[in-house]
Structure formats: C-alpha cells, structure tokens
Amino acid sequence: MGKVVNSIKIFCIANQKGGVGKTTTAINLAASLASHKKRVLLIDLDPQGNATMGSGIDKNNLSLNIYQVLIGEAGIDEARIRSESGGYDVLPGNRELSGAEIDLVQMENREHQLKQAIDKVAQEYDYVLIDCPPTLSLLTLNGLSCANGVIIPMQCEYFALEGLSDLVNTIKRVHKNINPELKMIGLLRVMFDARVTLQQQVSEQLESHFGDRVFKTVVPRNVRLAEAPSHGLPGIVYDKSSRGAKAYMQFGAEVIKRVKMMDKENGNRNGN
Ligand code: ATP
Ligand code: MG
Q1: AAA domain: from which residue to which, for each copy (predicted)?
Q2: Ligand 1 atom at minimum distance from 131 CA
C-alpha cells in the first residue's frame, strides 16, 4: 500500500563457537555475491579484525572503524573502505571494538546502534553481511537486532548440534523481544571431509532435523581457503579453480536463489 519495499538483505554470519568458519564464509560470500554483480557491504563486528585483514585492509592502520560507528561518532559512509580484491565495501574492525562493549552498556538503544547506522546507507547495497565474534555478546546482539536473517556455518562434529541449541534459542529470543524480522536462513556445512564417517553421520542428522534450513552447498576442507587471508584475498579470488572457491561461488548463487524464494513467500503472505 504505497509502502516503498526496500529489498536490502542484512545477514549475520554467526556461531558462538570459535574457529568454525564464520569469517571465511563472510569474506567468500561477500566476494561471491559481488561477482554476481550484487552491491555488498561486509561488516567486521569482531575485535579480531580477521574479516578486515582477509579483505586486504590493514586493521592496524585505520583512521575510522566500526567502533566509532557503534558509539555514534561516525557514519558508515565515513568509515567504510573498498576491498579492491573482493569487489565489496568493508566496515572495518580491530581491537578498539572490544571497548565498545563497555561503552554500549551505558547507551540508550544500545542494541540498535548498528541498525541506525546501516539504515543511512541501506539504499546503496543489495546485501550487508555481518561477521560476528565467537560470543553471544552485546556486539553480536547489535548484529542480530538489525539482521533479516542468520547464516550459521558449522563443522559436522559430534558436539556441533549441542552448541547449536544455544544459538537457536538466542535467535528465538531476539526474534521475540527485539527484532521480529529475524529468521534463521540456514546452516552451512563447512570444512567438510566426506571420508570421515562421523562427519557424514552428523551431516545426515542435520538434514533430517533441519530439513531445507540446511544449505545444499557443502564447503570442503580446502587448504587454499586457509592460505588466502595471508595474501589479503578472498579464497575465491586467490585460487578460483580450487574446490573451496567453487563451493563458495555455488553458495553465493544458492543464497541469491533462497532470498528470491523468501521474498516471494513474504509477498504472498502480504497478499501481493
Ligand atoms: P573465530 O570464531 O575465531 O572468529 P571463525 O569462526 O571466523 O573463527 P575462520 O577464521 O573462518 O573461523 O576459520 C578458522 C580457521 O579455519 C582459519 O584458519 C581458516 O583459514 C580455516 N578454514 C576455514 N574454512 C576452511 C575450509 N573450508 N578449509 C580449510 N580451512 C578452513
Ligand atoms: Mg571470525
């Protein structure tokens, strides 16, 4: 009804477990979507600054970063930097961000700082991807409260399912109390080794438990993906013929397709 439909998609890449492939997924999904001609902003919400470095931007040499954005001292338009290698924009982060947690606690609207900043540049992007830290902290909460959805990378290990329930519960709570838009977009199996029987078993369990919430793409364990960040390049740029690169290219296409489907479902529900 005359409402401007803003089709921008904001996704958190989250899992409170450390080292599961969040940053690798965030960087390579950003680069994959960019190669599909999408306008992408990658937000580094982790004080480790790995998404920043892996996009070819020196985290130790930033005049502005996401910290100033979160405390309202700068806009994203001032702090963002282009990743020339990846073809997307980066809102960079570094260890200054660990102080944000303390500053935010004292602020009004503390869960909504990031959302307010994104709203101002939203029309410039098709996708905003947020690389979350391995915690369920106020930083992650800022990410979840402005996102339309969460993409959860996970390794198919024995305790993976157990860890997942904390995250799923957090998503449910944020959905209920702060952000009714928030959905779990899907689980992405990463660092997968098909020769390991246990991984196959966990993978099958995931499919039977979460159904089509599990992405079809499976990202294999591939050393080229691990080497790429030290060159400041996304894996899909560093060695685009590698199995890892091909998987993330396919994942980008799958995300675009899934988003189209979700938009259609929403459209139907709204009666248009
Ligand atoms: P953190 O919780 O510390 O932020 P993370 O979840 O972001 O970690 P990554 O940094 O993406 O995880 O990955 C952890 C390590 O595994 C890195 O050294 C990365 O290069 C490597 N890695 C990620 N995905 C793959 C893969 N598919 N094959 C091989 N190595 C991978
Ligand atoms: Mg990370």
Answers
A1: 9-184
A2: 7
Average model confidence (pLDDT) across the chain: 92
What phi-psi label fits residue 160: left (phi over 0), alpha (psi between -120 and 50 degrees) or beta?
A: alpha
Query: How many CA atoms lie less than 13 Å away from 195 in the CB half-sphere?
Result: 1
Q: Which residues sit with their C-beta closer than 6 Å to ligand 1?
A: 18-24, 46, 48, 50, 134, 190-191, 219, 221-222, 225-226, 244
Count the Cβ atoms, other than its own, within 10 Å of residue 162: 9
Q: How far apart are CA 110 and CA 176, in angstroms?
A: 17
CA of 81 to the centre of ligand 1 (A): 23
* DSSP secondary structure string for all residues of 132-171: --SS-SHHHHHHHHH-SEEEEEE---TTHHHHHHHHHHHH
Q: Is the dihedral angle over the CA atoms 94, 95, 96, 98 positive or is it negative?
A: positive
Of 92, 111, 114, the closest CA to residue 30 belongs to 92
Helix (H) or strand (E) holding 114: helix 113-121
Gap between the Cα atoms of 123 and 130, Å rounded? 17
Place of tokens 């005049």: 63
Show the domains of the chain with their CATH numbers: 9-266 (3.40.50.300)
How far, in Å, is the centroid of ligand 1 from the Cα of 72? 31
> Residue 1 has what pLDDT?
44
> In this structure, are strands 214-220 and 183-192 parallel, antiparallel, or unpaired?
parallel
Identify the DSSP state of 221: P
Q: Which ligand sits nearest to residue 222's alpha carbon?
A: 1
